[in-house]
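Hi R.,

Here's the chain you asked about this morning:
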Amino acid sequence: MIRFSLLCDKDHEFEGWFSSSKDFDGQSERGLVECPVCGSKQVGKALMAPAVAVSREDTPRPLAMDPEKREMMRKLRDMVQTVKQNSEDVGDRFADEARKIHHGEAEARGIIGHASSDDAKSLIEEGIEIAPLPEFPEDLS
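And the predicted structure, written out as tokens:
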């Protein structure tokens, strides 16, 4: 077995194990190699340094997800996208707008935005239901 450092077209790095370089090439040509972060099939070998012992404190790279986990991540991404498409983005006014909606001072509707951890705690303590939306690596680039 040989381990390759791989890189997708969205610059996500991960590792994959193959029986040979030819095995990687064959699987890649058949569309079987995909990024575990974003699902892209545009994957190539990254530059690799020779094997050198390193500290255990290195950040581990994601390993390929099994199909069930990949499907679960796809569904989660779809759900977040649906929430975003059906909500008004109020940005940094989130806490104030949530309070206005809760107290009937503004139209009831779905909103998204940003709140500090203190604001989020206060909203919850006031009985205002909120939930964070996950951010995915591709959202942050």
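The helical segments are 21-29, 67-85, 94-102, 117-125.

Let me know if you need anything else.
M.
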